[in-house]
Write a structure and sequence with these properties.
The complex is a heterodimer. Chain A is mostly helical. Chain A has 13 helices and three strands; from the N terminus they run ααααααβββααααααα. The longest helix of chain A has 34 residues, at 302-335. Classes of the chains: A mainly alpha, B mainly alpha.
Chain lengths: 338, 338
């Protein structure tokens, strides 16, 4: 951009081009939109809104239907307002003996646990990558970030076998043995298999959550001006004090956003739990949702599926919309510099 | 450089402790990743040279009849020697890259244009539209895929019903397109390694719905950080709206959109949930991506040795992509180098 005057009058573009080329900063002074332009824009935004709402209205309509059969015609507005599906889902979410509350609890424990654990471990690593210059930095960072490109599902076979080998035995003598470190002399019964527990799935899921948390936090830490830390260092604060007393409080909003993004991902995760867990008492909401979708669309209890979908999606949707601003700035900062 | 100024100020502590500090901060993350990422990766590597199958699950690597097959698994994957029909590695890889690239190429411009539209000064109901447009981001991919699968259903799907409505209005026959199952590609020459089936286009439509809102989210954030004075100064200098868009908006959006595009690329490249639910990689594995095939190897075919070799190959594909994208975003550079 130069400050030189552009003398040649530019030819008038057609109105569509001009419309997209205008000042888009959304601030500053200027006259209001002329009405015809406003209406044209409203039409466009409404069409886009309709495109977005189309599948969503479809789900809402289904969930408010009392019939579980597959809809044969396209209905985008509820014909009836029956809460039967919601009631059924809350009452008896699956054919298995597990209550809705238990599913909710499992989902919650799993996603909060994975989110928090990965955040705790990630924050110091993100700080190290953002602020220190050391020999193996580049190599170590690549090691941390590659799993971002390789979903945990790719490691699922190894994780499965690994977790599967950690078992707690109750030996015939009454002692307890933890495989693979100890084993019973005279055989015994398995009382706990890490693979078949929420703890095991959680540990496996952290392997996907951790790199994302490091990446997201590092990007934010990069934007915190260093002067503050330097000032603290001049005042005699040790690097550890700088980290705990200065950087961590400043990074609090981003910690919250990173936690929430992790939470959301794991709240919806079903593949890993589905692979690992076998006992209905450990099932999660997302797994139940997956359980309802069979190979054939006719076998899906459509109204209950839709009701469950809304129940699973609603909490994260509400938080996401509320945190929209913070999430965006967090994600964009995640990779941007300067 | 900033770090050097910091270290000179922190000379109080011993130099060696200073050098160890970054590694100390990295320790928790690497300890955790050692167990759940690097160890499984190594385990995969060991497994990938064996004929590990279901019958070895009980005893794991200690099974007496576990054979070392050398590079056979790798050779089988690359040359198509697997006991799996319709799988050619390079076709799937090409398709996967094509799938990710075409998605991003649609999502980014659409996202930016819609963000520009939403950012027009004086537009009514902005907040409402923003809240609506974000919805696709928060709905579980499983739900999105199931609903879209139903929309593209041959008999009852909304897409065919809509087309039928128009077709019959012009005196045509009811439309019965087998969106997700038709094998004959509509455009035979498009991809040299194997034509794209109709399902690809159907999935592009569905994933478009899923993908652009995120890009709008990111570019809205970036647009709002462009100061309005810039546009005012430019228009005082006589810059046309066209020039303003290309000289101000586009360059200032770039730092936010490049990482977002790369994030979108990796997301699409590994879009497991969505692809698995739309088509399960079908028809005849023509919409299979690497990660759905990896899952299939573990979950259905239960060829753990082959799955491990496949994961190792995916790892190297991911590494290559990461190194390329890293050059573009410079994500692993430290703050101080910027």
């Amino acid at each position: 951009m130069s400050t030189s005057k552009v003398v040649t009058p530019t030819p008038r573009k057609n109105f569509l081009v001009r419309f997209f080329m205008q000042n888009t900063s959304g601030e500053g002074t200027g006259r209001d939109l002329p009405l015809w332009k406003q209406l044209l824009l409203q039409l466009l935004t409404l069409i886009i809104a309709a495109e977005v709402m189309f599948p969503i209205m479809y789900i809402i309509t289904l969930s408010l239907s009392s019939k579980s059969q597959r809809p044969t015609s396209l209905e985008l507005f509820p014909q009836e307002f029956s809460l039967v599906a919601f009631q059924q889902v809350l009452d008896r979410p699956t054919a298995n003996p597990v209550t809705f509350i238990e599913l909710l609890k499992n989902s919650f424990v799993l996603s909060v646990g994975v989110g928090l654990a990965s955040l705790l471990v990630a924050v110091t690593a993100a700080y190290a990558f953002s602020r220190f210059k050391f020999k193996l930095r580049q190599v170590l960072m690549i090691m941390v970030f590659i799993p971002l490109l390789m979903p945990t599902i790719g490691l699922s076979a190894a994780l499965f076998l690994m977790m599967n080998s950690v078992r707690l035995y109750e030996c015939t003598g009454g002692a307890i043995a933890l495989e693979p470190f100890f084993s019973c002399a005279a055989g015994g019964a398995v009382v706990f298999n890490l693979r078949d527990s929420l703890l095991g799935v959680g540990i496996a899921m952290i392997s996907g959550a951790l790199p994302f948390a490091v990446w997201n936090l590092k990007g934010y830490l990069d934007t915190i001006p260093e002067e503050l830390e330097e000032a603290a260092a001049i005042d005699g604060a040790s690097p550890n004090q700088v980290f705990w007393k200065i950087v961590l409080p400043l990074a609090a909003p981003q910690l919250a956003v990173t936690f929430f993004l992790g939470f959301m991902g794991h709240w919806q995760e079903f593949a890993m739990p589905w692979l690992f867990l076998t006992q209905p008492k450990d099932y999660t909401l997302a797994m139940t949702l997956y359980n309802m979708t069979g190979q054939y669309a006719n076998a899906i209890p459509w109204n209950r599926f839709a009701a469950m979908a809304i129940i699973v999606a609603l909490p994260v949707a509400v938080i996401y919309i509320a945190l929209q601003k913070q999430i965006v700035s967090g994600l964009t900062l995640g990779g941007v510099k300067g | 450089m900033a770090t050097t100024t910091m270290t000179t100020k922190m000379k109080v502590g011993s130099k060696r402790r200073q050098a160890m500090l970054p590694y100390l901060y990295l320790l928790p993350a690497f300890l955790v990743m050692g167990f759940i990422t690097f160890y499984p990766l190594l385990y995969q590597l060991v497994l990938s040279f064996t004929n590990f199958e279901t019958r070895h699950l009980l005893l794991g690597l200690k099974s007496p009849d576990l054979e070392n097959v050398g590079l056979q698994n790798y050779i089988d994957i690359i040359t198509g020697g697997l006991p799996v029909q319709n799988f050619e590695f390079f076709r799937v890889l090409t398709y996967n890259l094509w799938w990710a690239v075409t998605n991003v190429m649609l999502h980014v411009p659409a996202g930016v244009l819609i963000a520009v539209l939403l950012n027009v000064r004086g537009l009514w109901f902005k907040r409402i539209y923003r809240a609506i447009y974000i919805l696709p981001v928060v709905i579980p991919p499983l739900v999105v895929a199931t609903v879209w699968r139903n929309i593209f259903d041959e008999q009852y799907g909304a897409m065919n019903q809509m087309l039928t409505f128009f077709a019959t209005a012009f005196g045509g026959d009811p439309v019965r397109i087998r969106w997700l199952f038709e094998y004959t590609p509509p455009i035979a020459w498009l991809l040299p390694t194997g034509a794209l089936p109709l399902a690809y286009y159907a999935m592009m439509i569905a994933n478009f719905w899923l993908g652009w809102p995120f890009m709008t989210l990111v570019s809205t954030g970036a647009l709002q950080s462009i100061p309005g004075d810039l546009y005012e100064a430019a228009s005082i200098d006589g810059a046309s709206p066209n020039q303003q868009f290309w000289r101000i908006t586009v360059p200032l959006l770039r730092p936010a959109m490049v990482p977002a595009a790369i994030y979108g690329f990796t997301l699409s490249f590994n879009l497991f949930n969505f692809v698995y639910f739309m088509t399960q990689g079908g028809p005849a594995r023509s919409t299979e991506i690497l990660i759905t095939f990896a899952y299939d190897l573990v979950r259905n075919l239960r060829l753990y040795g082959v799955a491990a070799a496949f994961a190792v190959i995916v790892f190297f594909v991911a590494l290559t992509i990461f190194l390329i994208t890293n050059r573009i975003t410079r994500a692993t550079e430290s703050y101080v180098e910027a």
